[in-house]
Each structure stands twice: as C-alpha cells, then as structure tokens.
C-alpha cells in the first residue's frame, strides 16, 4: 500500500539576493518543535566557515499569552537547509525534503531570471575634447606675467566646479559645467587683461611722455583694477566675446576640426 502525503508549498523567501528559509518554517513544515530544530542547528558537525555562510541567528519579539518575550530563530540558505535535514528520516521526511529543495530551486531560478543592474561607466573626454579645453585654458591664461599660475588656478577651478579630482579625466556629461565655468573665467581674465592694458597705456602716456606724478597715476590705476573700466575697454570686450564664444561652443559641441597643441595641467 502506498502512503499518500499532502505536500504543501514550503516557505522560501528572498533575502539579500539569496533564497532562504527559517528554523521556524522548517519546524512547522516537518512537524517538529522549534526548540529541537534550534538545538539541531547549533549541534551540527560542520565547519565554522560553513555555519557562518549558511546560518544566521536572529531574535524577534513574540507574544506568549499575556507577555512579550524574545525568541531566537535561524535563517538559512539552501545549503544550510540540506545539511540540517540530512538527519530527518522516513518517507514523509523524504517527500518534504524533496518539496523544500524543489521550492529552493524554483526561487533561485526566479532570482537568476531577474536582470541585474550594471551601471554604465561615464563617458570620458576624448583626446580632442581635452585639446579643445586645453586651448581654452591657454587662451584665458596667456598674456599674464604669471601665466602658469593662472593656468594652474583655472584647471583647479574647472575641477572644483565638476567635482572631479586630478588626475582623473573629465566626464563628457560635465561639458556644460566646464563650458559655463570657462565663460565665467573668460569674463574675469578679459576684464583684468584690459585693465592692465589700459593701465600700461596710461603710465606710458602720462608718466613717461607728460611727466605726471607717478604715485598719483598708479593710485588711479589701482582704482581701475577694482572695477573702473573705460568705454573703449567695454568695446574691446564685446568684440572679443564673439571669438571667445566660438571657442567655447567648439568645445561644448565637441567639434574636433581643430586640435590645439598646448599641454594640459
């Protein structure tokens, strides 16, 4: 005579990307006292590494009658479950083990079918992109007495605004930020260059040719450095802006028909 068993679906859940079950679920499914399953787990003759990889102890607060108390339980992987139920004998236990393993396999197959998210690495500036950016930096710093210090400071500002530390390469998605920062720096360097240019003209004309008091002229030049710009300087700024904007747009639009030959910082 063949004995028929009612096979229920075992309780297997996903935890931290793995199919797992609990000592409570095993005790209920196999009709055993939970404390006996706990004792069995804690007396398994397996290595510490295996136990650590496949069993994890937890405590939950449960209500027993009128009081609440802490109850210990174990969460286990498929390998842990198989190791635990090796000693469960009999036809019924065998059928239940088979059902449990089948459910583990089903859950693992379901896990493996879920597409894994692999974030794409950001696209980095090409050699031509960097050449265009390097040309912009050179154009902004060229003409100053301490042009290398200006160049270093400009590269530092570009890295600050993008949050990309040296020597990491700039990302393509940061190009709009880089272009906007170049516009800001161009306004600063242009104004400063024009004030210096105007100051030199004034010193030559007034101090050398007209023999005016040098201290008074230099004092006026210092005031000019603080923001006083004459009308012809503003005209020069507006004329240069078209050329500068073209250079920035070439970089922003990743136009590589022209490659600069200046070293980057």
UniProtKB/TrEMBL annotation:
Residues 204-231 form a coiled coil. Keywords: Coiled coil. It comes from the Bacteria. It holds the Pfam family Phage_pRha. This is Phage regulatory protein, rha family.
């Amino acid at each position: 005579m063949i004995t028929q068993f009612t096979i229920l679906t075992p309780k297997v859940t996903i935890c931290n990307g793995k199919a797992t079950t609990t000592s409570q679920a095993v005790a209920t499914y196999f009709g055993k006292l939970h404390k006996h399953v706990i004792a069995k787990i804690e007396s398994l003759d397996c290595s510490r590494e295996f136990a650590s990889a496949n069993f994890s102890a937890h405590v939950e607060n449960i209500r027993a009658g009128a009081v609440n108390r802490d109850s210990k339980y174990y969460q286990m992987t498929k390998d842990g479950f198989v190791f635990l139920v090796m000693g469960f004998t009999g036809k019924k236990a065998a059928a239940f083990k088979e059902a449990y393993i089948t459910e583990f396999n089903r859950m693992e197959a379901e896990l493996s079918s879920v597409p894994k998210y692999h974030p794409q690495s950001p696209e980095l500036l090409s050699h031509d992109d960097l050449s265009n950016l390097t040309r912009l930096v050179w154009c902004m710093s060229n003409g100053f007495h301490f042009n290398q210090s200006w160049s270093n400071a400009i590269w530092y500002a570009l890295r600050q605004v993008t949050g990309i530390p040296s020597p990491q390469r700039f990302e393509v998605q940061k190009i709009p930020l880089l272009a906007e920062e170049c516009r800001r720096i161009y306004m600063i360097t242009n104004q400063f260059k024009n004030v210096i240019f105007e100051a030199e003209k004034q010193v030559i004309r007034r101090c050398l040719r007209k023999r005016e008091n040098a201290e008074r002229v230099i004092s006026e030049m210092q005031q000019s450095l603080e923001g006083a710009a004459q009308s012809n300087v503003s005209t020069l700024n507006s004329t240069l802006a078209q050329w500068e904007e073209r250079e920035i747009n070439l970089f922003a639009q990743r136009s590589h028909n022209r490659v600069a030959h200046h070293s980057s910082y």
